[in-house]
Amino acid sequence: MKIIAKTLEGLEDILAEELRQLGAEEVIILKRAVSFTGNNEILYRGNLWLRTCLKLLVFVREFPVTDEQGLYNEIKKMPWESWMDVDETFAIDSVVNSTLFRHSNYISLKTKDAIADRFREKYGRRPNVDTLHPTLRVNMHIRENIVTVSLDSSGQSLHMRGYRKSQVEAPLNEVLAAGLVMLSDWDKKRTFIDPMCGSGTLLCETALLAAGKPPHPTNRQFGFTRWKHFDEVLWKQICDQVTENTPSKEKPYIMGFDISERAISSAKENIAAAGLSDWIDIRTEDFFFQEGLDNAHLVFNPPYDARLKEKDIMMFYQHIGDKLKLSFSNCTAWILSGHLEAIKHLGLRPGRRIKLLNGSIPSVFCRYDLYSGSKKAKWQQSDEKNQ
Fold first, then answer.
1. How far from chain centre, in Å, is Cα 318?
2. Segment 282-316, tens digit of pLDDT
3. For residues 247 and 229, what is the distance between their CA atoms, to the nearest angstrom?
């Protein structure tokens, strides 16, 4: 099968590597997506294990059209009865980027009519639409006059892990959080810290990765489990391997803190829901009064309050930089920020800078290597040891 894995902008390379490790072939990086070929096992494992994927869409057909009637005719030709029965349900998702077709809702309506009419002509009745939990979710993508029809194997977006029971303002997307940890090249040994943890999404994704657990529970109802030719035996084997092949691992020290008691309460609830309470140490503390640590790995997304005056934001980032230099010697700090001017006020030079989208906000994810004393002194010490 040809399959399209959807992701967030900036995470394409990470997702491609995840797919290669699963055994996917013909992996091609696209914008906010990765295409590949694979069988049912790759499809099933991908939905369960991929940390930076939003959807897995199985390619069915591509064709050119010039008007709505042509679209209707081509959709009606397709053997929908081979993918679902008349007593089952379906739903249509449409993405349209075309000068010929301007309304995605209308495209969904024409597609729905074509599928329903095919069943009505063959069986004298038609399947119902269920937008929440359909047997078959059809994805329509139109770019100019080219229509791509795919089947959504995931169902709910894969960023919805199931552990978020509580949240504070502007929570981090789970797929983005997992991507940040993977982009930061954490070795799973150094102490991991999120010093402004909010509702704990970054901590949960870090602990899932460290524990070797999939980002989703095996009892999740993925879209493919409702398909007509779903291989239940294969799926059971894959789920059984999660239990059998996940050894007890030596736990790295993962800790999070936040100045907000409400945020910590939310984080504890989510961490417990994810079954990760034994993996994460979390507490209410102010980052700026936190005791320093040596040789730690920090990843965080400083809060941004739109009500703050520009001067206050700049000062806030300056204080973050001062605290990192003062208390976190020989550490690595990665900071995600959607305020591209404020991050310059950290007073630190990034060793790496990655462009990402946090929701609709253009952001940067920057690495800072923190030394005791100056970087020059650090290099001199290293040279002396090597001599």
1. 30
2. 999 999 998 888 899 999 999 876 545 556 888 99
3. 32
Interstrand relation of 55-64 and 25-30 (parallel, antiparallel or unpaired)? unpaired
Contacts of 220 (CB under 8 A, 6+ apart): 48, 162
Judge whether 255 and 328 are in contact, CB under 8 Å: no
Asked if residue 182 lies in contact with residue 206, where contact means CB atoms within 8 angstroms, the answer is: no
User: Torsion over CA of 202, 204, 207 and 211, rounded to 10 degrees?
Assistant: -140
Give me the count of residues in the chain: 387
Query: Do residues 278 and 248 lie in contact, with contact meaning Cβ atoms separated by under 8 Å?
Result: no
Q: Count the Cβ atoms, other than its own, within 10 Å of residue 200.
A: 35
Q: Give the tokens for residue 342.
A: 């404020």
Amino acid at 306: A
Cα–Cα distance for residue pair 353/339, rounded to 1 Å: 14
CA distance 48 to 235: 10
Query: What angle (nearest 5°) sits at the alpha carbon of residue 70, between those of residues 55 and 90?
Result: 40
Contacts of 368 by beta carbon, 8 Å cutoff, 6+ apart: 324, 332, 333, 334, 335, 346, 348, 349, 350, 351
- Domains of the chain with CATH codes: 2-152 (3.30.2130.30), 174-212+252-378 (3.40.50.150)
Q: pLDDT of 177-228, one tens digit each? A: 999 999 999 999 999 999 999 999 999 999 999 999 999 999 999 999 999 9
Taking the CA atoms of the chain, what radius of gyration do you get in angstroms? 24
Spatial CA neighbour of 36 closest among 24, 48, 49: 24
Contact 24, 37 (CB under 8 A): yes
Residues 196, 286: Cα–Cα separation, whole Å: 8
Q: What is the pTM of this model?
A: 0.91
Tokens read off for 60? 């069915």
Question: Is the separation of the CB atoms in 212 and 191 below 8 Å?
Answer: no
Q: Which two tokens stand for residue 217?
A: 């529970």
